[in-house]
């Protein structure tokens, strides 16, 4: 009976397959081919725009290096020195803001490093802006059904805040002028905290404000290298330092000294206790390659050509009067730093980027943290572009060249086209063409342009040149999330447009968990990422079809990209923090 039923079903299956093939042939010529061809043309056009932008930046940065156009040669800069008559009052008052939210693994680093800055102690104020609520307490309370506003939860939250207060009191006892500030709620997130911090009465005497996120550790001479640009050049509003990616093995290993009136403070750590965070895993190496290009090329080009670039949110010094003139901090997007940068530039203020001014920080080590960060960094700029494009175009205080640079280069090409064309072209359109041989992609758009763009992106991190292929594959995977976030910001669609998720930093957590810890529980839901898995299956299917019927050998790329999506989809990327 089984053989008879199978034989009876076989002709039906063959007939259904033939009908599907007939429908495909009827639809392909009038619909699929022209639509796919149009998609190829659009992607090629956007790729050319991206290629031109990359080449332009390469030419500019080469000219900057050859001509020696360092900020010190373009702007007036004189070292800060003691004045026999004025004494320490010759130094301007500087406010250091350290915004934090549940940064229990790293808060001691930034506070200690800020207190170790070389600056007269009576001319500096350290302000710790603590919005912490300890998310683990919140999660536990929700799990057991306890009201988040109950007295017990409030007491536990205050216990966590007391840890930061104790750290502040420790430095205050050493003569550091340090203030601890909390808010009743997190309205405005980081922008709200920074805005509230500037309202305190003791800030009125400060001319400049420096911002360090909780995982940033500036060198002692940070202010001595940045403030002179602001004091001698009244048109400058911002001086930005460059991020480097280093972890300290433990906050206890840091040897910090309190700065005296002769600004001889220091922040030194045992070299043996330092671990390069970028080498922590393959994902952090990929991040380092992308961010180094951003700082060494994009930020330098903006600073050298238009004296404009996006503030990176930390490791920078602002002129407080420029912040106030621009309208202060706003929380309308998830990129409050970029928002302020654009608004201040429209008022005529200029910025300086110092590539040699390095500030240590920690890269997100877990894929979850990295994905949240990339969503914020992709959605926010697109949403800001939507909100400000008309305001920029109508502005009369800046030159037409600056407008073109901000709208076209800064926003359209780098923040929108770069994300969308990567995913649409390399992960959807090219794989789709294996089913439609009538649509051909020219070799210059398929090989030459992407190769040149990739090589130009490698200039920021020469030591990782051998990882270029892995970087390309990983960037294509991340373009899935960046494209989703960019479209969400442009269209203001979805509930995560203004979602501000703090990037989790592990600090010393893995080291402490590894000592005497039980074997971690691996929950399947913690690792699986369905969007990546579905995309990987699609690419694998396209690769199999091309291997069987194609002639262009796309399957080599398609299999490699499918494997990368699968690796990420199954959670085998980044540091996995075990659930104890």
UniProtKB/TrEMBL annotation:
Supply the alphabetized keyword list.
Answer: Cell wall biogenesis/degradation, Glycosyltransferase, Golgi apparatus, Membrane, Transferase, Transmembrane, Transmembrane helix
Its main subcellular localisation, reduced to a broad class, is Golgi
InterPro entries associated with the record: Glyco_trans_2-like, Nucleotide-diphossugar_trans
| Transferase recorded as keyword | yes
TM ranges: 38-67, 416-436, 448-474, 528-548, 554-577
A Gene Ontology biological process in which this protein takes part is:
cell wall organization
State the membrane topology: Multi-pass membrane protein
Q: Which Pfam families match?
A: Glyco_trans_2_3 (PF13632)
A single GO cellular-component term from the record reads:
Golgi membrane
Q: Where in the cell is it found?
A: Golgi apparatus membrane
User: Which terms in the Gene Ontology molecular function aspect does this entry carry?
Assistant: mannan synthase activity
Origin superkingdom: Eukaryota
Q: Is Membrane a UniProt keyword of this protein?
A: yes
* Annotated ranges, domain Glycosyltransferase 2-like: 274-436
State what protein this is by name: Glycosyltransferase 2-like domain-containing protein
